[in-house]
Design brief:
There is one protein chain. The chain is α/β, with parallel strands linked by helices and 742 residues long. The structure holds ligand MGD (2 copies), iron/sulfur cluster and molybdenum atom.
Length: 742
């Protein structure tokens, strides 16, 4: 055993299945990883690992892993060498670009691109060399609102308060105990919340379900879905009316208080509480307790992002923080100093609002275009199907599974089938892979070197993201892929295409934008004749790091660089930037909400609201084929026991779930943690249209019930993906009808 508690055949690794990046210990025997566990001697995760991380060996050596790339031929997929696949794909893309221009080639970065820092950067360089800006990411159907909200409100250069120092924290629509984010510290949140509970931190959770996180709360508000914006407006109403806000902070750092005060005036706590179905005293208590705290913060998850008004919710969260002066002040410890990314100076001053609509690529649909959350993935299907110049004809999915994840599955299906070329980089033959022309089989976590730089970078895409400690870790590749496998890293695929197409790759080092960036990123040309190794590429990508990668590598178990942590500097002399509390767009959206209630769809026709629920064993659509992680092959529809009784249902019954747009089957299960009228179902299940007529075999795809046109955000494009009005009816025979609506 070493002094960090490691046996000789145990090697540090980093799990990159989700953004917690838990440090692991992997047991390697004869070149094969036989076991994985949390590494208590590394990081600040307290030795935590979840079942998904511990099953990395299953992912690497399981029967569903693709050990070679595949090509569609004669109605099935046959193995093809990665070199031949790259030859053919390069030739096809060159032809498409020559005939239709570079805009006809698009790239989708899915949640599975999270571990691929090199892959994402080199793919971006390849698109740049090709001349296409048609890059979309899963972030646009996740929590895009925070990025738009930060543009409208401005950010704070000193950063956000630290959860561990807070005496009050509010969590809206997130269940970090299971999901590890987003918008809440992802590194062992269960432990953080337990410690907070012991320290009597006032944890206020707003969620229509009594989640694993809500069980730790001192106050749980359990409203109907979709009321977060007005709950926040009512809290702000109370805080302003009772003069509980930080007048000095607001006077020095913000503008727009009059507009905000006037707009929230309508949102009396009693009126909002009644609409949202919560006791008004609890709403008022939440406002008073937040405003009265010394250090407080507010986190948002996908629940509040999916239920409509996703930007407004985040915007009002920023206003709440600003009103109460809840930003890091001069002299406080810098919460997220970079280690593997470039250094920056944190200052206790506003970073003023910036344009929320970009001047980059404009889409042809719904008035959408470039913006701080990127291009809207929900526009891809229409951009494929809509005739005219610039139509998408080739799509590459890097770690994404649009057939399982995009709203309106039928339209996505029609669109992907209409492509001239669909390429998927994925380790399993997914629903999207099954309709792809090529599936490129990648190397996996334990076969590739990695660092924690990516998690540092997350801080640039929203509040309370990234790592709360100056932690850095590098791990080398631990094992080779299984014997006989022909798998490549994602970046090698794009590098290979560029070589074949004669495209030079100009790479921009990973960076962010906004207040925590001091210098422009370094731009360098990759050597296109002599391919770098993955380790050489990592060194090139991290050449601007605050602590040299070589130094980080010396700590095989990673290192917390508390020695470089600094305190927040005071405001620059002469700086008079202001945060915006009364953005006209946001005020207008808020003011219009009561009118929406009046015209809401008929509650009698759609009496339930469907929300998403993340489960511990699987992430979105992947990992489902491992019975140890996902014992049920389907995603049950959970209902409150009284709703079950009223509908005459018992657990295991089959139902039809109908929205205004489509219908799917479901297997019901009773769940007393739900609010009555709210039903929940895990995303990412089901098959392609026509495949999943019996929901007990592979579950049902909730994306099929959604429409990209439903309450979509005019800037980010995210439609309503939760709080969806649905009707539920019992089905007496297992035979399922195909949906009537195409
Ligand atoms: N109805 C509904 N729709 C939703 C959601 C919802 O809750 N409900 N959630 C939304 C959210 S928050 C998101 S982020 C999106 C996700 O949208 P997607 O990213 O399209 O969906 P995932 O199912 O996460 O697909 C990730 C894919 O990456 C693959 N993958 C995993 N690791 C690797 C790797 O190392 N390399 C490669 N090449 N591939 C890898 C997995 O096998 C999987 O097929 O879906 C959104 N859509
Ligand atoms: N194990 C596991 N981990 C994951 C994933 C996974 O699939 N499995 N997915 C990953 C991805 S892509 C993401 S984006 C993150 C997401 O992480 P989270 O945002 O934490 O996602 P959920 O766990 O679905 O929690 C959303 C919560 O919002 C509640 N909710 C629904 N509607 C509303 C509403 O209108 N208002 C409020 N206040 N609450 C509402 C739901 O009841 C639910 O408890 O998790 C990531 N981590
Ligand atoms: S929480 Fe689980 S899936 Fe996420 S990084 Fe840690 S071990 Fe991996
Ligand atoms: Mo996500």
């Amino acid at each position: 055993m070493s002094d960090t508690g490691r046996a000789a055949n145990e090697h540090p690794a980093i799990c990159r299945l989700c953004t917690a990046f838990c440090p692991l210990l992997a047991t390697v025997e004869d070149g094969v990883v036989t076991a994985v566990k949390g590494h208590a001697g590394a990081g600040f995760h307290g030795g935590y690992s979840c079942p998904k991380g511990r099953s990395l060996p299953d992912q690497h050596y399981g029967p569903n892993r693709l050990l070679s790339s595949m090509k569609a031929e004669g109605g099935q997929h046959v193995a093809i060498s990665s070199a031949a696949a790259m030859d053919e794909i390069a030739e096809k893309i060159s032809r498409i670009v020559a005939e239709h221009g570079p805009r006809s080639v698009a790239l989708f970065f899915g949640f599975g691109s999270v571990p691929q820092m090199a892959g994402v950067v080199v793919a971006g360089a390849w698109m740049g060399a090709l001349g296409s800006r048609m890059m979309f990411s899963a972030g646009s159907i996740d929590k895009p609102g925070i990025q738009i909200a930060l543009a409208l409100h401005g950010d704070w250069q000193g950063g956000q308060p630290l959860f561990e120092e807070a005496d009050c924290w509010m969590i809206f629509g997130a269940n970090p105990v299971i999901s590890k984010g987003p918008g809440f510290p992802a590194q062992n949140p269960g432990q953080l919340l337990k410690a907070a509970q012991r320290a009597k931190v006032d944890l206020i959770v707003v969620d229509p379900r009594q989640t694993e996180t809500a069980k730790r709360a001192s106050l749980h508000l359990q409203p109907c879905p979709g009321y977060d914006a007005v709950i926040l407006a009512a809290m702000i109403h109370v805080i302003i009316a009772e003069q509980l806000y930080d007048e000095a902070f607001v006077a020095e750092n913000a503008e727009g208080l009059a507009a905000l005060t006037a707009t929230v005036a309508t949102f009396r706590p009693e009126m909002v509480a009644e609409e949202a179905g919560i006791p008004s005293q609890e709403l008022i208590a939440a406002a008073r307790r937040f405003a009265g705290a010394k250090v407080a913060g507010v986190s948002f998850g996908t629940g509040s992002s999916f239920a409509g008004h996703s930007t407004l919710v985040e915007y009002l969260g920023l206003c709440l923080a600003t009103l109460c002066g809840q930003w890091a002040r001069a002299g406080q410890r810098v919460r997220k100093p970079n280690v593997l990314l470039p250094a920056y100076v944190a200052k206790a001053q506003p970073y003023k609002p910036y344009p929320a609509k970009g001047s980059g690529e404009q889409l042809r649909v719904r008035g959408l275009g470039s913006c701080p959350s990127g291009l809207a993935a929900t526009a891809i299907a229409d951009e494929i199907l809509m005739e005219g110049e610039g139509r998408i004809r080739a799509l590459i999915c890097l770690g994404g599974n649009p057939m399982m994840s995009f709203p309106d599955q039928h339209r996505t299906f029609e669109a992907l089938k209409a492509l001239d070329l669909l390429v998927v980089l994925d380790f399993e033959l997914t629903a999207t892979g099954r309709i792809a022309d090529y599936v490129i089989a990648p190397k996996l976590t334990l076969e590739t070197p990695a660092t924690t730089a990516l998690v540092e970078r997350l801080k640039y895409s929203g509040t309370h993201r990234g790592m709360d400690r100056p932690y850095a870790h590098y791990v080398p590749k631990l094992v080779d892929p299984p014997a006989g496998a022909d798998v490549i890293e994602e970046w090698e695929f794009f590098y290979g295409l560029a070589q074949r197409m004669g495209l030079p790759l100009r790479v921009v080092t990973p960076h962010g934008a906004g207040p925590h960036v001091e210098h422009a990123p370094t731009v360098f040309d990759l050597d296109m004749t002599c391919k770098p190794t993955s380790d050489e590429l990592l060194s090139l990508l991290l050449q601007d790091s605050r602590v040299p990668l070589g130094e980080v590598k010396l700590h095989v178990d990673g290192h917390i660089y508390d020695e470089i942590a600094e305190t927040v500097h005071p405001r620059d002399a002469g700086n008079d930037d202001r945060l915006q509390l009364g953005d006209p767009l946001m005020m207008a959206e808020l003011a219009a909400i009561p009118a929406e209630w009046a015209t809401a769809p008929d509650r009698a026709a759609f009496p339930f609201q469907l929300v998403s629920r993340r489960i511990n064993g699987v992430i979105n659509s992947f990992g489902r084929s491992n019975p140890r992680l996902c014992p049920k092959p389907y995603n049950p529809l959970s209902l409150h026991p009284e709703d079950m009784a009223e509908l005459g249902l018992v657990s295991g019954d089959l139902v039809e779930i109908r929205s205004a747009f489509d219908r799917v089957g479901g297997v019901v299960e009773t769940d007393a943690t739900l609010r009555r009228g709210v039903v929940s179902m895990t995303q990412g299940f089901g098959g392609l249209p026509g495949e999943d007529s019996d929901p007990r075999t592979m579950g049902s795809n909730t994306g099929r019930l959604l429409s990209v046109h439903d309450m979509f955000d005019p800037i980010s494009g995210i439609p309503r993906m939760g709080g969806l009005p649905v009707a539920i009816s019992r089905v007496d025979t297992p035979a399922r009808r195909e949906p009537e609506i195409a």
